[in-house]
Structure formats: structure tokens, C-alpha cells
Design a protein that fits this description.
This protein has 8 helices and 15 strands. Helices cover 25% and strands 31% of the residues.
Length: 273
């Protein structure tokens, strides 16, 4: 069994848990590399930022860090998922403030494609499912991911790696499971996430690393026209790292990109972590 609930090897959770009842919690999906969690401090910072925003009393940081280190060491390569909910409570949306958080950790095998397909450009599509606007939750990785679930169900074509999601104003915000980057000249653009979307830890690392590659990182609204004018497009998340985008579909329309050097340079730096 590769699941732990509040430190105990278990798969059972109280049906009254507010994470189950209302999606009242946050989570992190982390890459285990060489028996360690890659960018663990970034993950922990985002997790606790989410807890503060939701007013969830999170677990002890020191104890949680130790637990992650211990569990990650069980696999050389893998995926570690951490969920923190507000805990069990009485019926109704309003928390009492007396709940004790639930922490769930699950360790999974790393998909083989992560190791074999990294440099291969992918095909992505534009999704019909929009992201709603909520500035108070923008950037957080909460348990409420129904928009991504519905968007990901839009296609069955195994050739399509990811779907791009728009907000209700038709700005391109992110993928169902990833963040988006566009390069034009020395400008490295990514959608601003002030109204919706998830601010990924890999997105943060790329923005912080861009200057080392003499790139100017810019967060701004992104439209379809920006994709067509970009020299290079790639996507990122904590598990796969970076994936170059070769084709973007919007109905019968196709955008094609053949420049991949920025993603390749960033990937080489990431491989050192």
C-alpha cells in the first residue's frame, strides 16, 4: 500500500471530510527524482500559501517535510501526491474553526512516457470548457478541479497531449494540467493568473530561470493571435517538466511551431536538479 493518511498507511477516509464533501483543501503533485522531491520547497510554499488563503490550519511544516523526504526515498523515480483538507466537520458549508486538517500522501510509479517522450514536440488543442473568474482563488491549487475534468473529457485522441483552456473573456490561461509559455525574440511570455488558473511550481522555476538564459519574462493576457505570432511555444508542469508544442488545434485550424531551443535549454538545466 502506497498511501498514508495522517501518517498512517491507509486508504480509508472519514466520509465527513470537507475535502470530500466540498473540495475544501489544496494539493500538490510532485516529481520524485533520484529518491527526492524536486522543487520541494516551492511545493511547500504554495501549499501553505493556499492553506492561509483558505484559512486552513495546515500540518506542522517540519513534520510534513520529514514525511515527504521519508516517503520519496521509497522510489528512485515516481510521482508523489499530497492533499491537505480542512478535515472532518459538521454538515454545511460554514467551517467551525475547530476542524483538524487531514493530510493524504500517495506515492505512484512515474509514467514511462515522462522519461522517454520529454524532447518530443506535442500536439495540443483548444478546449471549449471555459475557466470561471475568481481572483480570490486565482493561482491556488485547490481540490476544486471540475473545470479541468470536464475539459479533459472533451477528447479521446491519444495523439493530443493537452488542452488549452480559456477564461470567459477568451484569454488563454493554461492547460488542463499545465502552464503555457510563448517566446518571441528575447521575450518569454506566460498568461497572467490574477483571475483564474493555477500557478505551477514549474512555471515559477521557469520565470526565475529565464534571466539566466537572457530572456525577459512577461506575465500578460494571451490571445490566439499571440500563439500564431510566437516563435516558440511550450508547456510545463511539475511531473513532466517541459514539453515543446509542435501543433495547436482550434477546430480545423492548425498552428505549427518548429522552434524548440528555449524549452531544450531549460530542460537541460532542470535535469541538473
Amino acid at each position: 500500500m502506497n498511501a498514508w493518511i495522517n501518517g498512517r498507511n491507509s486508504t480509508r477516509i472519514d466520509y465527513r471530510d470537507r475535502g470530500l464533501q466540498y473540495g475544501d483543501g489544496v494539493f500538490e503533485t510532485m516529481r520524485v527524482r533520484r529518491g527526492q522531491v524536486r522543487l520541494v520547497e516551492y511545493h511547500l510554499e504554495r501549499l501553505y500559501a493556499g492553506c492561509r488563503q483558505l484559512k486552513i490550519a495546515g500540518p506542522s511544516l517540519l513534520a510534513l517535510r520529514r514525511e515527504l523526504v521519508r516517503i520519496a526515498a521509497l522510489r528512485s523515480e515516481g510521482v508523489l501526491k499530497l492533499i491537505v483538507t480542512r478535515g472532518s466537520g459538521r454538515r454545511g458549508y460554514r467551517p467551525t474553526g475547530r476542524e483538524r486538517c487531514t493530510r493524504i500522501i500517495a506515492l505512484h510509479a512515474l509514467p514511462k512516457t515522462v522519461l522517454t517522450d520529454g524532447p518530443t514536440p506535442v500536439r495540443v488543442r483548444l478546449c471549449a470548457t471555459p475557466l470561471g473568474l475568481n481572483p480570490r482563488l486565482a493561482g491556488l491549487k485547490t481540490l476544486n478541479r471540475l473545470e479541468s475534468v470536464v475539459a479533459r473529457a472533451e477528447w479521446q485522441d491519444a495523439r493530443i497531449w493537452e488542452g488549452l483552456m480559456l477564461d470567459v473573456d477568451e484569454n488563454i490561461v493554461c492547460g488542463t494540467m499545465s502552464n503555457l509559455f510563448l517566446r518571441s525574440g528575447s521575450s518569454l511570455m506566460t498568461p497572467v493568473l490574477d483571475r483564474c488558473g493555477v500557478a505551477g511550481v514549474m512555471r515559477r522555476w521557469i520565470l526565475e530561470t529565464a534571466g539566466d538564459l537572457r530572456l525577459n519574462p512577461v506575465e500578460r493576457r494571451i490571445r490566439w493571435q499571440d500563439l500564431s505570432e510566437a516563435e516558440e511555444v511550450f508547456m510545463s508542469n511539475a511531473v513532466v517538466g517541459l514539453r515543446s508544442v509542435g501543433v495547436i488545434e482550434r477546430g480545423r485550424e492548425r498552428l505549427r511551431h518548429s522552434a524548440f531551443e528555449t524549452a531544450n535549454r531549460l530542460r537541460k538545466r532542470l535535469d541538473l536538479l
